[in-house]
Amino acid sequence: MKKILVTGANGQLGRTIKELYKKNTIDLDFYFVSKEDLDITDKEQLLAFFYRNSYDYCINCAAYTNVEQAEKTPEIAFKINANGVNNLAQKCYEKDITLIHISTDYVFDGEKEEPYLVTDRANPLNEYGKSKLLGEGYIQSIMTKYFIIRTSWLYSKKYGNNFYRSILKKASEGQSLFVTNRQKSCPTNAENLAKYIISLIGNESDNFGLIHFSDNDIMTWYSFAVKILQENKLLRQTNLVKSEKYHTFAIRPKNSTLKNIK
Fold it and tell me: What's the first-to-final CA gap in the chain, in angstroms?
């Protein structure tokens, strides 16, 4: 039975994988660790952990994803998304563990009109994207058995702080919603990404390298908000305003759509 370690297990993707694992009928054995159980930025802790345990795969869901705060305190983002990933890649390489790492559409600058291919040059606009790209580079320089999965606008309907749940919360509280239509990408349901990751393991894929994975519907944040409200029968009673102005501390790509071809 293949043993799979999931780091960052308290995040929306980790919790989604755990939920699917409980329903799982294929022959896989998952082990879930939170930051409190295993801090990937702590080399000594990693050394002790991997000395005691062995795995066939590691799904790294541990990440710093606060794009706004990363711009103000980039050292925190780089500590986790780059240095921590470097530490983890080193241990996975030493222990012959296949690493499945989650990255982001924000490694691109958004200047391209068409969806981005894995062969397109990365050029992140913000500190979050830069930290994630550096983490990708560490994996590529250390390992051969890895999957780096870039995904876009990841959300869970059940877990975590994300756009989907934020829109629902504000709408249910009767708040007016001002949502930008100046950015576009493909919102990606964490459940679909989790199923894809499990399929990579179950099928014993050896097509290693960079992968783009997202749901296929291209939309703006505003059109995504409309979809969320329609889906939950809240559109008619919510004051949803399309906003041309969108002021954030971090610069964000206007188009971060990913082409789902390796």
Answer: 28
Residue 174: count of CB within 10 angstroms of its CB: 9
Cα(35)–Cα(31) distance, integer angstroms: 13
* Strand bridging mode 219-220 / 184-185: antiparallel
CA distances from 9 to 3, 185, 246, 260 (A): 15, 26, 32, 25
d(CA 257, CA 13): 20
Residue holding tokens 């990708």?
136
Tens of pLDDT, residue by residue over 2-50, are 999 999 999 999 999 999 887 765 678 999 999 999 999 999 999 999 9
Ranges under pLDDT 50 in the chain? none
Return the amino acid letter for 168.
L
Contacts of 5 (CB under 8 A, 6+ apart): 30, 31, 33, 53, 55, 57, 58, 59, 97
What distances in angstroms separate CA 256 from CA 124, 151, 168, 189, 201, one per listed residue?
11, 10, 24, 16, 27
DSSP state of 206: -
Question: Which residue segments constitute the domains of the chain, with CATH numbers given?
Answer: 2-161+188-217 (3.40.50.720)
How deeply is 193 buried, as exposed, middle or buried, from its count of CB atoms within 10 A (0-12, 13-18, 19+)?
A: buried
Q: CB of 110 within 8 A of CB of 125?
A: yes
- Against a cut of 0.85, is the pTM above it? yes
* Active site (catalytic) residues: 128
Please enumerate in sequence order all residues whose Cβ is within 8 A of that of 232, keeping only pairs 6 or more positions apart, or say none. Answer: 168, 171
CB atoms under 10 Å from CB of 205, counted, come to: 12
